Amino acid sequence: MLFDSSTLTLLIILLIVCFWIYFLWSNSRITKVMIQRVAQQQSVIRHDDTVRSFCRAIHFLQPNAHAGTDYIVSVGGPDETPYIAEWLNPKIPQPKPDQLEQALKMVSDLDPAKDHAAQRRKEYPSVGDQLGAAYNARQGDFADQNRLDEQIRRVKEKYPKSVSDEHL
Q1: Residues forming a β-bridge with 67
Q2: Is residue 69 within a helix (H) or strand (E), and if so which, with residue range?
Q3: Which of 49, 85, 119, 167 could form a disulfide with 72 if both were Cys (CB 3.0 to 4.6 A apart)?
Q4: How many angstroms separate the Cα of 161 from the Cα of each of 38, 61, 70, 122?
């Protein structure tokens, strides 16, 4: 016999380990690409109000679709309007242009002065302050966390979420 049973067992274990390492490596590459794509999309959405409205219109039509994982939004063309560059999720139907146009009208009809999310965003504590307070709380000092939680509670009371905002 060419191999004894212990050598054969060792080879099988080595093959399984190699396959598992390849599987993890491949999965981590895919995850890294997806994270970069989502981060890029969030950056575009955060810095461009027209893209944000366009994504809200998509979300209005397809509540389970998310920028970066289910679709890619780009800005271009002669008038620099946002468009769906790529629809990534075949399980969710891509909205038709006329549906998007109607949804855009609906979300643009929202009065920004009454948009609770935009108003809250202006008065919430910064992310850095919230992270610092969370760190201090993990170290046993809850003073900053309690102060920021109270500030957030007051902002939420000042700008409540309306029933019409629930679907957007």
Answers
A1: 71
A2: none
A3: 85
A4: 26, 20, 26, 15
d(CA 11, CA 79): 62
**pLDDT tens digits, residue range 6-39?**
888 999 999 999 999 999 998 898 889 888 888 8
Tokens describing residue 121: 């965003």
Q: Do both 3 and 13 map to the same domain?
A: yes
Tokens representing 40 are 């890029």
pTM: 0.54
Same domain as 61, residue 46: yes
Last residue of a domain, one of 109, 135, 152: 109
End-to-end CA distance of the chain: 69
CA 126 – CA 77 distance, rounded (Å) = 35
Supply the range of the domain harboring residue 28: 1-109
The mean pLDDT of the chain is 85
**All residues at 6 or more sequence positions from 132 whose CB lies less than 8 Å from its CB, including other chains:** 144
Residues 133 and 57 in one domain: no
Reported confidence tier of residue 143, pLDDT bands at 50, 70, 90: very high
86 phi, psi to nearest 5 deg: -155, 135
Q: Decide if 148 contacts 129 (C-beta within 8 A).
A: yes
For the stretch 106-123, pLDDT in tens is 887 665 555 677 778 888
Same domain, 166 and 137: yes
